[in-house]
Amino acid sequence: MPHADTAYIPQGLSKAEFWQYVYDQLASLLEGQRHWVTNLANASSLIYNALLAFTPHFGDGDRAVNWCGFYIDSPFFPTPRLSTSSADDPIYSHRLLLAPFCGKPACQLINVAPGKARGVCADAYVQRKTVLVRDVERYPGHIACDGETKSEIVCPLIATSGGQETVVGVLDLDCLALAGFDEEDQIGLERIANLVVNSCDW
Ligand code: SME
Predict the structure, then answer these.
(1) How is the chain split into domains, by residue range?
(2) Pocket around ligand 1: residues whose beta carbon is below 6 Å from it?
């Protein structure tokens, strides 16, 4: 079984080299596995732990990434089989649900319905493009899950199948520092989001 060693990040990497390293580790980790829950669980752990080891750009100090994970469109979650809940229950209606992540507990539901969408994740999902937030307090509608978060980046997960593109959710990272993420991180994370989403069956 392929394995990725997230505890080891070579010293002195540039950001571009770091993101390529994480990409290669992730590609190896996801090989031969197509279930989205399993792949997103491993992807969030690998990215989060790699960033904690990537000093001086991030690391485990005041520039640390304090949350890394996914929100996925509710129709992709399993429908209940053993309980009496109805699939028509509002909690199963179309919205982003908390999916595999690393970090502190976070908000479970994010509304993406027209006129009700609010926050960084909803904006990235609805607009189908990455949202890079240098100061979360200045972002209208930002949903604060952890009061210590200062900046954030959210990439849409766009699955490509039969020439058709479907947005299935988002990859979200939070940082303790203002302007924690830059355009180089955006390029690296967009490649990783693309790898992850297209390594899964939806
Ligand atoms: N800040 C996000 C909510 C998710 S947490 O950051 C984990 C938002 O505004 O959508």
Answers:
(1) 3-79+86-198
(2) 67, 106-107, 110, 119-121, 142-143, 145, 152, 172, 174
The neighbour count for residue 11, using CB atoms within 10 Å, is: 7
Single out the residue of 112, 100, 106 nearest to residue 37, CA to CA: 100
CATH hierarchy code of domain 3-79+86-198 = 3.30.450.40
* Mutate which of 66, 134, 152 for ligand 1 pocket (most atoms within 8 A of beta carbon): 152
pLDDT digits (tens, 9 = 90+) for 7-19: 689 999 999 999 9
Q: Model confidence over 114-154: pLDDT tens digits?
A: 888 899 999 999 999 999 999 999 999 999 999 999 999 99
The helix (H) or strand (E) run that includes residue 175 is: strand 164-175
User: What is the b/e burial string over 81-98, where b = at least 16 CB atoms within 10 angstroms of the residue's CB?
Assistant: eeeeeeeeeeebeebbbb
* CA-based nearest residue to 187, from 132, 141, 134: 132
In angstroms, the first-to-last Cα distance of the chain is 23
Q: Are 160 and 193 in contact (CB under 8 A)?
A: no
- CA 119–ligand 1 middle distance (angstroms): 7
Say what angle helices 15-30 and 36-52 make with each other, to 10 degrees: 150
> Residue 169 C-alpha to ligand 1 middle, in angstroms?
13
